[in-house]
């Protein structure tokens, strides 16, 4: 795991490639700008509009204006189901106790409004040795292990 | 040994992990590292609710099935951490009303020793899955519904995509045409059915109570049994993406289904379901087989039907509280938690211990919780019924009132709940006192009371419903008639202006009197109401 910096401090990133530094543009702008590689998805947007453009995207920033709005968990997972392999960054009201679920939905970097320390993140992710269901990560569900 | 699912190391690991995580979260909250706002969704997902006087902890009883050892643990928790009581709820769970935050992690650890937990018993996530209290016992079931509920329980536990839904999400699974679990009033209702010799599920979505009650329409007539999880996943994804988040009173899936219309909703689900097909989301058949094996019928003894009814008090109880068992010589006995003057659904620690012992001795170590806040011993030999009844009676656990006027569902109301407009429990008590003397005459009558519009007490689904409202600072009660949570599901209608706390008891008596004078052969209260309509009842009440 690497860390990145923003003006609020560092945040966890779970990718080896270089971070994308071009700004994430709105979905509307992105569709109009053929050279844009970073796009921001608000909770109400239809992430499937990105499907025709997945080849050129390097970063999808998914917004969490309030932590209780869970729509973008689906957005992240849908992107991975469609084969997107670039970065998915959760931005906004992202709390320590949510990052394990976000990781499972395919989020691989975080830009929380309140910084999350790397050790705290490691610890939060470490609570869950097993998972009950397949999702967008590579983890093997318990049922598969039972019948391995 | 109870016929029930048993944890393997994986299940135990998950529950233990949850205890460790919650212990850490609670410590961070007590140290001030988490604000109450940030802590709230975390404690809710562990069943911890802040009420008027203390924390309330809701413990999951998956599909209402408990072993004797689990029931003993519930008693121990009531003694150790509460005031010696527990409260069985309308979703087959148990609640403790006097919990301290610092004790909560220890309680969860105690529960984990008997394969229990409080995971997802509140919060905007997939809640504990409920079922028919007579699962595995009822002659009319296609199959025991509990293995499918267990499959769904595991799938929905810590689901990464569906833990921050617009609102809470409740699933019920049944397997007979008779609906004893209010299935159509759930966010997802599943009825296991057979089609051309194959097992599958009839899928309903968008039912619920609360301030806008709705009966769930059918989304798909037949989902093959090995596509249950993917189909559920599709329904949940559509809800998570499109359910309203602008207004928490319009956030349940019922509003989405209603606003989209069932056809448009179905089309969205179908499209999502198509996309999920290649993703391998479904556990293999072998997993279903593994779970089903836990629910194989226990070793019943060969016995004849019939038992001695010479004690008239026992005969009344037997006539009222027994449910026919699919195996000859056995019966399922309902232990009513509705003594006249008591709190509906309450049981003391001593009563819980006794029930656990009775389960071990008389019911193959099994107890069930019903959505009407009663308990069931599902596997009693008819030859043992009289001895069982005597022990129950000695402990105040033999009210002979199942589905009678004093078998009332009531929410906590103003005595515990910070949202309440009015008290529910005292109204239930006064009504039970008034009607118990005539309840045998009145026959099947379901009275349900909520202390506010949130409808935790299912008043929309009562043959007679009572809703507490706040009228210029005074508690007032509206009367509703004609609801049903069963296979003849319907929503009750308000009669007219409300009543004060004495008036509401008189008003209920007025409508039951009218029923008695108007009923035709064998009609229940509900049938008479449906035949006559509201008008004569209104006339009697306000005329
Ligand atoms: C401290 C306050 C509250 C208490 C003590 C309370 C109590 C209960 C209880 C005992 C149940 C059965 C739950 C189970 O077994 O899982 C229940 C269910 C329910 N609660 Fe509450 N509740 C409270 C707050 C609320 C709120 C805030 C709402 C909605 C805004 C609500 C709406 C419901 C509904 C609608 C049901 C069941 C019916 C359905 O599925 O739609 N309750 N509540
Ligand atoms: S119906 Fe209202 S008063 Fe009763 S428990 Fe629910 S929220 Fe509280």
Mean pLDDT of chain A: 92
Give the helix proportion of chain A (percent range): 25-40%
Distance between the termini of chain B: 59 Å
Overall tally of structural domains of chain B: 4
Shape of chain A: globular
Subunit organisation of the chains: heterodimer
- How many beta-strand segments of chain B? 20
Q: How far is the N terminus from the C terminus of chain A?
A: 29 Å
Instruction: Kindly estimate the percentage of residues of chain B that lie in beta strands according to DSSP.
Output: 15-25%
Q: Quick one: overall form of chain B?
A: globular
The CATH level-2 architecture of chain A is identified as: 3-Layer(aba) Sandwich
Q: What is the name of the CATH class of chain A?
A: Alpha Beta
> H/E series of chain A, N to C?
EEEHEEHEHEHH
Radius of gyration of chain A: 15 Å
For the record, the count of structural domains of chain A works out to 1
Q: Ions, cofactors, ligands: which are bound? A: protoporphyrin IX containing FE, iron/sulfur cluster
Average pLDDT metric of chain B: 96
Biggest interface goes to: A-B, 35 and 40 residues
Question: Radius of gyration of chain B from the CA trace?
Answer: 23 Å
């Amino acid at each position: 795991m690497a860390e990145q910096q923003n003006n609020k401090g560092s945040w966890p990133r779970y990718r080896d490639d270089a971070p994308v530094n071009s700004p994430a543009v709105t979905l509307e702008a992105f569709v109009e700008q053929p050279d844009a590689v970073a796009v921001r998805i608000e909770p109400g947007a239809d992430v499937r509009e990105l499907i025709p453009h997945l080849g050129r995207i390097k970063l999808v920033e998914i917004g969490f204006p309030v932590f209780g709005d869970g729509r973008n968990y689906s957005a992240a997972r849908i992107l991975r189901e469609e084969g997107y392999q670039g970065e998915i960054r959760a931005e906004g009201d992202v709390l320590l106790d949510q990052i394990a679920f976000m990781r499972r939905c395919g989020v691989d970097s975080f830009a929380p409004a309140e910084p999350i320390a790397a050790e705290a993140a490691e610890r939060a992710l470490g609570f869950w040795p097993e998972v009950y269901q397949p999702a967008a990560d590579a983890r093997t569900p318990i049922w598969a292990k039972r019948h391995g | 040994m109870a016929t029930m699912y048993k944890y393997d190391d994986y299940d135990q690991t998950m529950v233990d992990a949850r205890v460790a995580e919650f212990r850490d979260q609670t410590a961070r909250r007590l140290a001030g590292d988490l604000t109450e706002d940030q802590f709230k969704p975390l404690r809710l997902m562990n069943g911890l609710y802040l009420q008027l006087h203390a924390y309330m902890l809701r413990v999951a009883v998956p599909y209402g099935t408990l072993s004797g050892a689990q029931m003993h643990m519930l008693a121990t928790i009531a003694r150790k951490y509460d005031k010696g009581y527990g409260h069985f709820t309308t979703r087959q769970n148990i609640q403790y009303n006097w919990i301290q935050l610092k004790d909560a992690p220890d309680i969860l650890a105690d529960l984990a020793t008997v394969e229990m937990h409080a995971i997802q018993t509140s919060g905007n996530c997939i809640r504990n899955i409920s079922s028919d209290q007579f699962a595995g016992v009822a002659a009319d079931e296609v199959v025991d519904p509990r293995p499918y509920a267990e499959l769904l329980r595991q799938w929905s536990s810590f689901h990464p995509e569906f833990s921050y839904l617009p609102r809470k999400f409740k699933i019920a699974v049944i397997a007979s045409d008779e609906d004893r679990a209010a299935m159509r009033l759930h966010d997802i209702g599943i009825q296991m059915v057979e089609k051309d010799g194959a097992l599958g599920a009839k899928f309903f979505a968008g039912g619920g109570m609360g301030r806008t009650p709705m009966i769930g329409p059918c989304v798909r007539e037949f989902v093959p049994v090995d596509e249950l999880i993917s189909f559920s996943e599709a329904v949940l994804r559509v809800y998570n993406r499109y359910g309203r988040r602008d207004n928490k009173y319009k956030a349940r899936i019922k509003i989405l289904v209603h606003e989209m219309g069932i056809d448009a909703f179905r089309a969205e689900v179908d499209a999502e379901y198509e996309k999920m097909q290649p993703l391998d989301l479904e556990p293999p058949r072998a997993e279903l087989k593994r779970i089903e094996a836990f629910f194989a019928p226990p070793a019943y003894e060969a016995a004849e039907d019939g038992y001695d009814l010479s004690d008239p008090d026992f005969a009344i109880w037997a006539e009222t509280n027994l449910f026919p068992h699919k195996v000859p010589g056995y019966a399922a006995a309902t232990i009513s938690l509705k003594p006249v003057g008591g709190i509906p659904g309450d049981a003391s620690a001593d009563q819980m211990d006794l029930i656990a012992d009775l389960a071990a001795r008389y019911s193959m170590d099994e107890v069930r919780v019903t959505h009407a806040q009663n308990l069931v011993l599902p596997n009693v030999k008819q030859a043992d019924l009289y001895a069982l009844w005597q022990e129950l009676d000695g402990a105040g656990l033999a009210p002979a009132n199942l589905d009678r006027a004093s078998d009332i569902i009531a929410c906590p109301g103003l005595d515990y709940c910070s949202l309440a407009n009015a008290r529910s429990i005292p109204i239930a008590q006064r009504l039970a006192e008034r009607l118990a003397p005539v309840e045998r005459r009145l026959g099947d009558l379901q009275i349900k009371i909520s202390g506010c519009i949130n409808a935790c007490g299912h008043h929309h689904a009562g043959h007679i419903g009572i809703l507490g409202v706040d009228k210029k600072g005074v508690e007032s009660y509206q009367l509703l008639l004609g609801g049903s949570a069963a296979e003849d599901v319907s929503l009750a209608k308000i009669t007219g202006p409300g009543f004060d706390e004495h008036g509401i008891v008189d008003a209920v008596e007025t409508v039951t009197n009218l029923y008695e004078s108007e009923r035709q052969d064998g009609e229940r209260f509900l049938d008479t109401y449906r035949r006559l309509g509201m008008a004569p009842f209104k006339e009697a009440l306000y005329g």
